[in-house]
Amino acid sequence: MRKLLNRTLLLALLTALFLTVSAAAGFAGSGIVTGDALRLRSEPSTSSSTITLLSKGTQLPVLEALEGWYKVSWNDRTGYVSADYLDYTPAAPAEAPAASVMDAAVPAAQAPAETSLAGKTGLVTSDGVNFRAGPSTDDAVLAELAKDVPLTILSVADGWCQVTWNGQEGYVSGTYVAVDGVPLKDPKGVITGNYVNVRSQPSTEAAILTKVSTGAVVELVSLSDGWYAVRLNGMDGYICADYVRIYAPGTTTGSSLGADIVETAMGCLGVPYVYGGASMRGFDCSGFTMYVFSQHGYSLPHTATGQWNNTGEYVEKSDLQPGDLVLFCDPSRSNGKACSHVGIYIGDGEFIHASSGSGKKIQIDSLSSDYYTRYYVGAKRVG
Question: Which of 21, 67, 256, 265 has its C-alpha lying 20 to 30 A from 5's C-alpha?
Answer without folding.
Answer: 21
